[in-house]
Design a protein that fits this description.
Chain A: This is GMC family oxidoreductase. Chain A: Keywords: FAD, Flavoprotein, Oxidoreductase. Chain A: Belongs to the GMC oxidoreductase family. The structure holds 2 protein chains of 2 kinds. By secondary structure, chain A is α+β, with helices and mostly antiparallel strands. Chain A has 17 helices and 24 strands. In chain A, strand 12 and strand 13 form a beta hairpin. Chain B starts with a helix and ends in a 14-residue tail after the last helix. Chain B contains 19 helices and 8 strands. Chain B has 3 domains: 155 residues, no CATH class; 118 residues, Orthogonal Bundle (Cytochrome Bc1 Complex, Chain D, domain 2), CATH 1.10.760; 127 residues, Orthogonal Bundle (Cytochrome Bc1 Complex, Chain D, domain 2). In chain B, a hairpin with a 2-residue loop joins strand 1 and strand 2. The chains are: A alpha+beta, B mainly alpha. Chains A and B meet through helix 2, strand 9 and helix 10 of A and helix 15 of B.
Chain lengths: 597, 458
């Protein structure tokens, strides 16, 4: 089980990374009768320790001091905006927050649990069909996933049932419910739990967007609206809107996490072994370079280097680490932005997110301490397939939502007043009080496209604590995504008016604006080891199997060809179940490439 | 099954070895021996199909592992410590090792030990081994149990640690007097239990509860001589009407009292509680948890229902005014009236899971409103769980383990006394409050808290 001594000498499967993707794969492959060893670089995490009440809801220890996030003292990455710049290390977590320890980012996430749309999965095809090939900018690497919504639907459904997701279906087996997101594709079943209640802010947004002719719906939340037992027999408590989701282990066991929803079932399985504090340095290949033989890792408990062998290797670390491990292991061809060849590091994308704020009259209280990470009300009118991008001149889109997730005191004090407001003194204080009591945020949470000169590779200068070159990120905002963001944010003004806002602070990306890694935006990083139909433009086939090393599968948002308007976890989970299903059904019977290159 | 032993070839190693034993609860102390290897032939005797499995199930019903399997030691090799005022003693090895375990017991000797409390050498067992209950075991069940312990358990050639009781307290002959006085003969015990019900389900329930399940060992009051005051339903309303305080947990009644017994629990609640350690009416904690973890969760469905139905026909031992939900506290808390002592602490520390209405959340977080263990006369359990915290356990029948944190470091004796009084006097619970001194006394004897590494992983 959890200690090293009892593990089988040679597992059938090695899983690198103990987050959602790794835990799903471990569950599926132990169910298939295989001995699975999961390696996690961080500590074990549990609700009884990290989520112990009331110590868990400590903002200083939690988000401010980054309790559940990656420790940058050992590994980090370097960042630059353009290829002609020199990248520098990301020394303090800010823009994005990878997790560390069992559960990974799946322990500290918020719980927004979306499916992808039909269009998200074949975005190049639908864009060309609707607007013509010429509509796609020359330097944009717009691609299809190689898998359709219809094929993934059973796995979206399975993930929702495992996660205990709360939401409202719009269309179930062709039957319209009259509720939910009318733009969402048909489903085989309802959400396992009813939607989360609206916060006051969400109810105001729901009423105003209804009045202005939009189509509001309850965001699907992997925060349990009621006590729940999932198909693995794992139980969740009900969310009480305490507001400590993102960055915290949920003390009520009501935010889905690998720790609460999958690992209780896995830990009892003799075929499952978890090795914590195991930093994987390399996926080892045999002489042909076509077969993975195992992994080399540092046992951080003993500070010694070890190897483990297995027949099948699943790489399911955080997106950045998946790309890094592919590069340092020499698997596939690194992407070259000049020749536009190679696949590892290609199509790195992010999320185009900006947060605006409105203030209500002083007799209306927004109670921002209340909240739940995945709950809220959204409109998909600027993200849905039939919204005409032709006139607006961009590819992609953004849902707009009020996702009041609980504003904690330190964050409230830091964020108060807006850009021009004083940062101290009585004006600052009264602005902070006013903002905390009467305002709320409205987000445009948008897609992000892939470009020729936005990519990941190995840094030529900086190394991590293990002497390996660090990953280098070359990323900035591009015109298409800035236009998309500006277009969507421009509609927030009319909604604010309908809500009776006394003041509105709209926030959108500006032309020429560069990505700023010092400011928190979101941890939704995608791509770099993408799936697709062509081994020249993708690292993985449609089953997330490496084109180059067929006994290696790479699971996670690293497989997304571009960033969609929704949060990635729902698609990560569905792709993991999809891949596992085909490993079980096809690969195990006949190991080898499941798609011929 | 005497041939099993009579055919043995003896290789004497030590002329005589006495393993002192006794127990906290349910200790099978057996052993001494002039020794011999296990009979080789016995391994070849064909056994009826399923007999070992049946014997294993009997061991589960009797909860043998609870005392004879110590975490970190081989199964049934004993070694579980029981700290008594007269010294620490350890449960014995009941694996079939001929030297260190019970490998040389004939079936008759085994039955005599289990059912009458007499070891192979003729000396008496400490009555913490619940042989007065086991006396009710049928011959067939004893046979299956014997076969399991001889053939289904791996012999463990290890001794438990030496007991630490010094003479004259270590003398055993007085125990025979206790045995003569308080332990029934097998025939009398079986007659008394077996003839109570014509309904086969209730009859099975009676057999399980009064016999192998030995529920009365904890749940029935004991007299000054430590005998259970009642051993069967026939013996009157003291049976299962609540035991004393064991390791600072109050053992509640499991009869039909409305407030402090199982009067408001359905058959399904009792079944769910025994099978998973949690029901909508309450969750297992304290001394009941090991019973569920070791054995009750693995009882067959029919047996769980039989136990529940049997318990549900045990008339209340005391008349109690029925518990009725009183919304006053809920309304106070919801309008932020925290003027009552303990109310603010309740809001800050407890209400997130147990709610302002005290109703809890299903089988995840147990209710405090109307929960029998909250309303017992003695509030020790409530004080204890607030100080120490506790967890429901991950089981095959219920994967998730939920942890209530310890408040020993964050709340003072006064705060806990106020809080306990608040809980006991809210939502219709109407039980008497407690003083600071009661909390201090429990705190002084608090067992060592679990370390983070020992806590459940989900």
């Amino acid at each position: 089980m959890t200690d090293d001594t009892s593990r089988p000498a040679r597992p059938d499967v090695l899983i690198i990374g103990g987050g959602w993707a790794g835990s799903i794969m471990a569950k599926e492959l132990t169910e298939a009768g295989l001995n699975v060893t999961m390696l996690e670089r961080g500590h074990d995490h549990s609700t009884a320790v990290e989520g112990t009440y009331p110590a868990s809801i400590d903002e200083l220890r939690g988000v401010a001091r980054k309790r559940l996030f990656q420790k940058l003292s050992r590994t980090s990455l370097t960042i630059r905006n353009r290829p002609d710049q020199t990248a520098l290390p990301y020394r303090q977590l800010a823009a994005f927050l990878p997790g560390e320890g069992v559960g990974g980012a799946g322990l500290h996430w918020s719980g927004c649990h979306f499916r992808a749309t039909e269009d998200d999965l074949r975005l190049r095809s639908v864009t060309a069909e609707r607007y013509g090939e010429n509509f796609i900018p020359e330097d944009m690497h717009l691609q299809d996933y190689g898998v359709s919504y219809e094929e993934l639907e059973p796995f979206f459904d399975k993930a929702e049932k495992v996660f205990g997701t709360s939401g409202e279906a719009s269309s179930v087996r062709g039957q319209k419910t009259g509720k939910g997101n009318i733009f969402a594709p048909d489903r085989s079943d309802h959400f396992p739990l009813p939607p989360m209640a609206d916060t006051f802010s969400a109810s105001v947004f729901r009423a105003a967007t209804t009045d202005t002719g939009y189509h509001p719906f309850s965001m699907p939340a992997a925060n349990a609206s009621q006590p729940y037992t999932n198909p693995y027999g794992c139980q969740m408590g009900p969310c009480n809107f305490c507001g400590y989701c993102s960055g915290y282990a949920c003390y009520l066991y009501s935010k889905a996490s690998p720790n609460v929803n999958i690992l209780p079932a896995l830990r009892r399985d003799r075929r499952f072994t978890l090795i914590t504090e195991a930093q994987v340095l390399e996926i080892m290949l045999d002489d042909t370079r076509k077969k993975a033989t195992g992994v080399r890792y540092v046992d951080l408990k003993t500070r010694s280097e070890k190897t483990l062998e297995a027949d099948l290797v699943i790489l399911s670390a955080f997106q950045l680490h998946n790309v890094h491990l592919m590069l340092v292991s020499g698997i596939g061809t690194p992407y070259n932005p000049v020749t536009r060849t190679g696949t590892i590091g290609r199509n790195f994308t992010y999320q185009t997110i900006t947060s605006s704020r409105i203030w209500l009259p002083e007799d209306r209280f927004t109670n921002q301490f209340v909240g739940a990470g995945g709950a809220g009300v959204a409109i998909d009118d600027f993200n849905q397939p039939s919204f005409d991008r032709g006139k607006a001149g961009f590819i992609g889109g953004s849902p707009i939502w009020v996702n009041q997730s609980g504003l904690k005191p330190i964050a409230a004090a830091q964020s108060s007043g807006g850009k021009e407001a004083p940062r101290w003194g009585s004006t600052y204080k009264s602005a902070m009080i006013d903002q905390y009591r009467h305002s709320f945020a409205i987000d445009a949470h948008g897609s992000n496209m892939a470009y020729r000169d936005v990519y990941l590779d190995l840094d030529p200068t900086w190394t991590n604590a293990y002497g390996q070159p660090m990953l280098r990120m070359t990323f900035t905002w591009k015109d298409n995504d800035i236009r998309m963001n500006q277009h969507v944010v421009s509609h927030i003004g009319e909604i604010a008016q309908a809500m009776g806002a006394t003041r509105t602070s709209l926030n959108s990306l500006q032309p020429g604006q560069s990505f700023d890694s010092r400011v928190y935006q979101t941890t939704h990083l995608n791509g770099g080891v993408i799936m697709g139909e062509n081994p020249k433009t993708s690292a993985l086939n449609r089953y997330l199997q490496s084109w180059d090393v067929p006994n290696l599968f790479v699971i996670g948002s690293s497989a997304f060809p571009q960033g969609m308007g929704y949060n990635p976890t729902g698609l990560v989970a569905a792709l993991a179940y999809w891949s596992a299903h085909h490993i079980r059904r096809t690969y195990l019977r006949n190991p080898g490439p499941m798609v011929s290159a | 099954m005497t041939p099993l032993l009579s055919r043995s070839t003896g290789t004497k190693r030590r002329p005589f070895r006495r393993c002192l034993m006794m127990a906290g609860l349910g200790l099978l102390g057996l052993m001494n021996a002039s020794l011999s290897a296990r009979p080789a032939q016995a391994e070849e005797d064909p056994l009826p199909a399923g007999l070992i499995e049946e014997g294993h199930y009997q061991a589960v019903l009797g909860d043998c592992a609870a005392c004879h399997t110590q975490p970190g030691r081989p199964a049934y090799s004993g070694g579980m410590p029981f700290k008594l005022p007269i010294g620490t003693i350890y449960s014995t090895n009941i694996s079939p090792d001929p030297v260190h375990g019970i490998g040389r017991y004939s079936e008759a000797e085994f039955a005599r030990a289990v059912q009458l409390g007499i070891r192979k050498d003729g000396s008496a067992l400490y009555p913490a081994m619940p042989y007065p209950s086991y006396a009710r075991l049928s011959k067939a069940d004893i046979h299956a149990l014997y076969v399991f312990f001889q053939r289904g358990v791996t012999p463990q050639p290890v001794d438990p640690p030496a007991n630490g009781i010094i003479w004259p307290l270590s003398m055993r002959w007085p125990l025979h007097i206790w045995r003569w006085l308080f332990s029934p003969s097998i025939q009398a015990a079986q007659l008394r239990t077996n003839n109570q019900f014509s309904d086969p389900v209730l009859a099975r329930g009676a057999y399980l509860v009064e016999g192998p399940g030995h529920c009365g060992a904890c749940h029935s009051p004991r007299s000054i001589a430590l005998n259970e005051k009642a051993q069967t339903a026939k013996d009157g309303p003291l049976f299962l009407s609540g035991g004393g305080v064991v390791e600072q947990w109050v053992v509640p009644s499991i009869r039909q009292e409305n407030r402090t017994g199982l009067g408001r629990w359905s058959e399904q609640d009792i079944v769910a509680f025994l099978r998973t350690g949690r029901a909508r009416t309450g969750a297992s904690f304290g001394g009941m948890t090991p019973v569920i973890v070791h054995s009750a969760h693995a009882f067959k469905d029919d047996d769980l229902h039989a136990i529940a139905r049997y318990l549900m026909q045990l008339a209340p031992a005391r008349k109690e005014k029925p518990w009725v939900y009183d919304p006053t506290t809920t309304e106070e808390l919801r309008r932020a009236d925290v003027s009552r002592p303990g109310a603010q602490t309740y809001i800050d520390r407890c209400a997130a899971c147990h709610r302002t209405d005290g109703a809890g959340y299903g089988t995840v977080f147990p209710p405090l409103a109307g929960n029998p263990v909250v309303m017992t006369d003695d509030a020790t359990s409530l004080i204890h769980i607030i100080l120490a915290g506790d967890s429901t356990h991950a089981l095959r029948t219920s994967a998730s383990a939920f942890t209530m944190p310890s408040f020993a470091d964050t709340l003072s004796d006064k705060e806990i006394a106020d809080l306990v009084s608040f809980i006991r006097q809210s939502w219709g619970n109407n039980s008497k409050g407690v003083k600071e001194g009661a909390v201090r006394r429990v705190r002084q004897h608090l067992p060592q808290l679990e370390t983070p590494a020992q806590l459940p992983k989900n």
